[in-house]
Amino acid sequence: MISIKENAIFIADAHENENRRGFWKFLQALKNGKIQTPQLFLMGDIFDLLIYEIKATHSFAKIYIDLLEELANEIEIIYLEGNHDFNLAKFFKKVKVYSIDKQPLLCKFEDNAHTFAELAHGDIFLKPFLQFCLKSLRNHYLLCFLDFINNLCGFKITQKILKNQNKKQLVRKIPYFPILIKERISHYNTNFIIEGHYHQDVFLEYENTKYLNLATFAYKESFFIVKYGLEIRFHKIELKEA
């Protein structure tokens, strides 16, 4: 079981692309020691599009993959796949990758009480049809076929997806989010839940269960540092402040 260490960093939804390079700046800050941590949790959707079978997504991400592997020599890096970046295990040897089938990931805080937490990108426990579609899209053979079609049409499919992602509104408050979270909590088995995916940047408590939805890093380049004390805290800072 993974223990969440003091000063561990959590990042969700960086949505890195050709026009958005905040995560690259963050990795450079880790490399040169400006930011220091013993442990890095990447909570999914770190890239706008990165899929092992879709070769057109590889060239942009290669320098990130190489640097993450380099950093993993000194830092424990845990990468929970999202719905924009998946089937990643073959990219990495040292970074620990957890697919949607391995989420939620049960971890242990290193506080005095040894509190447990469940981590997930957030695209689990959805409506059955939607969950089926998301899992089907991860099928190796289907993706190989889509890669063939994408190459055949001059990469128009991946270009269209990335173009649409650039237009996407990254921050949008969900008015019924507390109701949604109340329903989601019922599927988990611990009293501390950490997710990305929804871009809400909220901390809620419901019947002794703590739920943290991480801010999207892509918006203000915000990430979270774990601090232990009388209680477990996730201290949010922006990259420009680090």
Automatic annotation (TrEMBL):
A Pfam family: Metallophos
Domain Calcineurin-like phosphoesterase: 9-199
Gene Ontology terms: biological process: lipid A biosynthetic process
One term under GO cellular component: membrane
Molecular function (Gene Ontology), one example: UDP-2,3-diacylglucosamine hydrolase activity
Classification via InterPro entries: Calcineurin-like_PHP (IPR004843), LpxH-like (IPR043461), Metallo-depent_PP-like (IPR029052)
Enzymatic class: hydrolase
Keywords: Cell inner membrane, Cell membrane, Hydrolase, Manganese, Membrane, Metal-binding
Protein name per the record: UDP-2,3-diacylglucosamine hydrolase
EC numbers on record: 3.6.1.54
